[in-house]
């Protein structure tokens, strides 16, 4: 059996990992390659599964692979192998949560029990050019978070500096200079908008196969948690938008919502102080996922209920 190459997709919350995966899948299909995807989410539900319909998708929900759910990733590998004879894949992409340490994911891939079937191909880390310098600042992040981001960068074979359309050239130059302090000498830095990068660039990456010993003591994230809000329907659009204008403790948010103005379904994404709302062509139970510091997450939830929903919600 030919080994399945594994590409690990890393990057802090909201850096564009899911957009990158969508582009990779489209290009794989165009090149007659069959991709498989493993998605890890901090929340109990994946509110973006509609983006991967029609492709082999394995979900690991309710926590981080690198901390408490390593056994779940092993189970996914075992399930994938049992299906390989009937629904084979040519390449596997693993997207960790935004606070996952990619070195932990690599540790699972290179375990002796899986080396016969999987081959670690490369590690791609996405960086949001619009807020990278803030996250590197001691004023905005903890030491642990800064070290986690550093390990996401230093372990990468390719660094995708994303959202370059949101920054001026002077700031982008500062981002690249800061990245160069941590990147491997062999790593490639690629500037992108909307995480658009050729599949051929990924396939050409050459990881040092001689350096496949298990990494000891990788840094973990420090208490970043997710909370779900369900039962929210037909809220005021402007009230919803205004709530996101001043939320310093909110790192990331996403979900499916309806507004009372038109009762239509919308997908929304919030990252780096940017809120994007897009109509969707399906109906599903509205759900909102908020991600932030574990000590503040319940306060964020209560504030949202009070100011936006103002009803008793079903958890």
Name a few traits of the molecule.
Hypothetical Protein Yjia, Chain: A,domain 2; seven-stranded parallel beta sheet; 12 strands; alpha/beta; 10 helices; hydrolase activity; 29% helix; 315 residues
Describe the protein.
The protein has 315 residues and is of the alpha/beta class. It has two domains: 4-203, Rossmann fold (3-Layer(aba) Sandwich), CATH 3.40.50; 224-309, 2-Layer Sandwich (Hypothetical Protein Yjia, Chain: A,domain 2). 29% of the residues lie in helices and 25% in strands. Strand 10 (265-271) and strand 11 (274-279) form a beta hairpin. The longest helix is centred in the N-terminal third of the chain and has 14 residues, at 17-30.
List the SSEs and their pairings:
Elements: E1 4-11, H1 17-30, E2 35-40, E3 57-60, H2 70-83, E4 91-95, H3 102-109, H4 112-115, E5 118-128, H5 132-135, H6 143-154, E6 158-162, H7 169-179, E7 188-191, H8 199-203, E8 224-230, H9 237-243, E9 250-258, E10 265-271, E11 274-279, E12 287-293, H10 297-309
Parallel strand pairs: 1-4, 1-5, 2-3, 2-4, 5-6, 6-7
Antiparallel strand pairs: 8-12, 9-10, 9-12, 10-11
InterPro entries: CobW-likC_sf (IPR036627), CobW-like_C (IPR011629), CobW/HypB/UreG_nucleotide-bd (IPR003495), P-loop_NTPase (IPR027417), Zinc-reg_GTPase_activator (IPR051316)
Organism: Cytobacillus oceanisediminis
Pfam families: cobW, CobW_C
